[in-house]
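The following record pairs a protein chain with its ligand, adenosine-5'-diphosphate.
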Amino acid sequence: MKAIELHDISFSYGKNKPIVLSGIDMGCDEGTVNTLIGLNGCGKTTLIKILAGLGKPISGSVSYYSRDLNDISYNDRSKLFSYVQQNNNPLSDYKVREYILFGTANRLDVSESPGKEEIEIAERQMERFGIDRFRDKKLGELSGGERQIVSICSSMAQNTKVVILDEPCSALDIVNQDKVLSILKSIAEEDSKTIILSTHNPNHALYLDSNVFLLKGGKIIDSGSAKDIIVPD
Ligand code: ADP
């Protein structure tokens, strides 16, 4: 079963602006880890935004589980996929535990507040990712690495089938890169989620044993398993 399918996607940031993506065809099987790899400026972030419904392609279609994204309500999208932005620096006055709890908002009606179940979900995720120790810190007081882990943890509290991450390891030192990658690996293995992330580091794709989509100049120039695509040459 394909969790995500893109067909013939083209995109430009505006009239008379260059075409940034063209003829993108790709599919991600349910329960797999997928990496978009390419140099700066090749279109990774743009493609991730289109997947998250934050950019409207000039042509082509995006579907989740065979449903066109345009036909999926915002409410249903929040239950289907979560999106972790690059260098996310969210709502800096909120405490970590409050931000993780925001992840559970997709279970609630507009007028509802989080209750016992939502608090339990948030607590479980904080424990799992080892962020209990800074639960009462404000987001603005965290390091880049801590903030990245908190963002991923909040997306786990959202409990979606698909997780989309834009350069989750950018701006992290090697220790924090390792932490984030092992968290993603555990999510893939233990939770059977479909993960798609962008990176410019081929080693990350290999470490995650992922399916790779190699982007160059806004086109996919190769795809396949990381060990077949990422070779010494
Ligand atoms: P990557 O994530 O691979 O570094 P991006 O998707 O950010 O690449 O950028 C792809 C291309 O789109 C680049 O040429 C970039 O300059 C251009 N671009 C990105 N964001 C915008 C924007 N908001 N307006 C106009 N052009 C943009």
